[in-house]
Amino acid sequence: MTAFPTPLEFQSKWKTKFFTIWSGQALSLVGSALVQFALVWWLTIKTGSATTLATASLVALLPQIVLGPFAGALVDRWNRRIIMIVADASIALATALLMALFAMDRVMVWHIYLLMFARSLGGAFHYPAMTSSTSLMVPKEHLARVAGINQTLQGIINIFAPPLGALLLGLMPTQNVLAIDIGTALVAILPLLFIAIPQPLRQTDQTTSVAQKTSYWQELGEGFRYVLRWPGLLGIILLAMMLNFLLSPTSALTPLVVTNVFHKGAAELGWLEALFGAGIILAGVILSAWGGFKRRIVTSLSGVIGVGLGVILFGLAPANMFSLLLFAGFLQGFALVFANGPLQAVLQTAIAPEVQGRVFSLLGAGAAAMMPLGLLIAGPIADRLGVQFWYIIGGSICILTTIVAGFIPAIMNIERNQGAAQGVFAPD
């Protein structure tokens, strides 16, 4: 039986071990971004159909929405390191099969859908496994900084992956681009083969101190009850769902703002996306060095208000001030880091390690479910009242909702009431 290091043992010399694993995962994210660009580009050139692209997006979301909560319960039951290895390997295998089809020139649209579904299914297991393991590998006082580093990485990928993908597709066939993703997946798997990571302690019987034997369905239900018993955590999940509902359509509507309102083209849209990514990178560097306010929930809510201000500015920018639109895009990216990074650190610190897989899966599923719903409602409203109207309304509600959250003690005190799910509160 494999011996797992305790969190204390791992964290005694955590930086080398954690960042070795993190570097492999980061490289894998780059490979995944290249594959995503290549597949979307192939669908665009092959079909020229907006319906096809929308269907591909929906297929990629389905595993997270429908299967995410069920995957989270398995993440909490199984060896999280093995889950990450199997998830990465399964995604690489699916990509290899599609690479073979490209090499034989036998690719069909449904093959792309199937691969996107498989990659998303792997991600439904990999994301909660990695996120919940991070809280055991990284000391609590450094979680916000690690979150800042992750946000910086995401910003770099947002800026450089699309042009790099376009360059590679111009230099080599699609199957060779897919091969890069397989190589990066293997690099991500390699450190996990040699570095053992901590596992959460199973719940024990308080009278015998023996690990309780519970069924999968009992633990799945316990994950829902854990959230429902904790008003602060439930409030944060509902807030995240509301914000995703309001803000996810803004990224989909951005090309229409650039073309229909400002009468600009692809180059200007590229500049807007680049400045959004630059805002993420700058804020990520600041957050990784600073760590945020002592009460990280304050940092997070302040970031959400900043995002809302950027979205409103995006909606109010007049057609003759494209520079103002660029600044609004930069502000959104900059503020988004302070909204997301500290919040993840708050949850990693406050939620019991043995249920983090379930909770993070529920959060991801709820947020993902809001994306198609938001698009479904925002589209007709934008068509009737103007594409910028949704930005003004969405940003305003975003700010108002966040201000209201600031007056809810259960949310503001979540960092010191982590016993709430068991009915026990830490002293003030």
Key features?
428 residues; mainly alpha; Growth Hormone, Chain: A; 2 domains; 0% strand; globular
Summarize the structure.
The chain is 79% helix and 0% strand. It has helices spanning 7-11, 14-47, 50-77, 80-103, 109-137, 143-171, 174-194, 216-228, 231-261, 266-290, 296-316, 322-350, 356-385, 389-405, 409-412. The chain is globular, with a radius of gyration of 22 Å.
Description:
Helix content is 79%, strand content 0%. The protein is built from 15 helices and no strands. α9 (231-261) runs antiparallel to α14. It is mostly helical and 428 residues long. It folds into 2 domains: 10-142 and 160-194, MFS general substrate transporter like domains (Growth Hormone, Chain: A), CATH 1.20.1250; 230-420, Growth Hormone, Chain: A (Up-down Bundle), CATH 1.20.1250.
Structural class: mainly alpha
Secondary-structure arrangement, i.e. CATH architecture of the largest domain: Up-down Bundle
Question: Compute the gyration radius: what is it?
Answer: 22 Å
Major sheet, described briefly? none
Shape, per Cα inertia axes: globular
| CATH homologous group name of the largest domain | MFS general substrate transporter like domains
Assembly type of the shown chains? Answer: single chain
Number of domains: 2
What percentage of residues falls in helices of 4 or more residues? over 70%
Number of strands: 0
- The low-confidence runs, each spanning 5 or more residues with pLDDT under 50, are 204-210, 423-428
CATH class bucket of the largest domain: Mainly Alpha
Output the CATH topology of the largest domain.
Answer: Growth Hormone, Chain: A
Beta percentage is: under 5%
